[in-house]
């Protein structure tokens, strides 16, 4: 069966939690309640599924998210409009086959019609040159560094300008808004509650 990149569903969360906590030192471990919070606030939360199995996920959010991550807060303090990649995890047996690039292309297609910047961080302690190189080849530039908390790891804060955004802003956002087509629709987050039609 073909690989599908789709919005996360509530029943995926156990598999997502297991993947997250098996990822190793490059991803902060989490628990059910924190993952549930991310599920509720993330603007972008997609999984890669093949043959009924979750092979990876990516979580991202915009500046209005109620999120206390020090790295997210750093971007909030420095930029008005962005999409922040909180975490990406690929199952160990699926690494090295381009799934990370697929996710980054997908989140870019989400971001570039909404904001001028795509942002994230990479750990410098322990440093993973493969991750640093990956982000460099995807067009990210370092815009800062910080230590997470008083004793946490040092991170490199990265941003990538989205050159399509000025065109979208001028032709669509500042005019009549984005077209009402499925691929441009926002994720229906649980925190949004039921939609009321006029």
Spatial arrangement of strands, main beta sheet: 1-2-3-4-5-7-6
Overall CATH architecture: 3-Layer(aba) Sandwich
Number of strands: 7
Number of helices: 6
- Overall radius of gyration: 17 Å
**Could you name the CATH topology?**
Aminopeptidase
Decide which structural class fits the backbone: alpha+beta
Helices and strands, in N-to-C order?
EHHEEHEHEHEEH
State the end-to-end CA separation.
Answer: 41 Å
Share of helix among residues? 25-40%
- Shape descriptor reads globular
- Contiguous runs where pLDDT drops below 50 for at least 5 residues: 193-198
CATH class: Alpha Beta
- Give the total of domains: 1
Notes on the protein architecture:
Residues 3-163 form the N-acetyltransferase domain. InterPro entries: Acyl_CoA_acyltransferase, GNAT_dom, UCP028520. This is GNAT family N-acetyltransferase. One of its GO terms (molecular function) is acyltransferase activity, transferring groups other than amino-acyl groups. The protein has 198 residues and is α+β, with helices and mostly antiparallel strands. The chain has a single domain, classed as Aminopeptidase (3-Layer(aba) Sandwich), CATH 3.40.630. 30% of the residues lie in helices and 25% in strands. It is built from six helices and seven strands. A seven-stranded mixed beta sheet has the order 1-2-3-4-5-7-6, with helices on both faces. β2 and β3 form a beta hairpin. The N and C termini lie far apart (41 Å).
């Amino acid at each position: 069966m073909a690989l599908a990149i789709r919005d996360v569903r509530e029943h995926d969360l156990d598999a997502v939690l297991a993947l997250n906590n098996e990822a190793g030192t490059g991803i902060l471990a989490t628990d059910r309640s924190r993952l549930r919070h991310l599920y509720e606030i993330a603007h972008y939360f997609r999984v890669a599924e093949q043959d009924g199995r979750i092979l990876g996920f990516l979580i991202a959010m915009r500046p209005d998210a109620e999120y206390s991550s020090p790295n997210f807060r750093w971007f909030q303090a420095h930029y008005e409009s962005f999409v922040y990649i909180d975490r990406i995890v690929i199952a160990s047996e699926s690494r090295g086959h381009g799934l990370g690039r697929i996710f980054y292309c997908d989140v870019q297609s989400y971001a570039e019609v909404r904001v001028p910047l795509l942002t994230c961080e990479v750990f410098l302690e322990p440093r993973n040159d493969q991750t640093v190189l990956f982000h460099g080849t995807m067009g990210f530039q370092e815009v800062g560094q910080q230590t997470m908390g008083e004793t946490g790891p040092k991170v490199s804060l990265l941003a990538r300008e989205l050159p399509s955004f000025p065109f979208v802003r001028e032709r669509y956002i500042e005019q009549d808004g984005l077209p009402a087509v499925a691929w441009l629709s926002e994720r229906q987050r649980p925190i949004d509650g039921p939609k009321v039609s006029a």
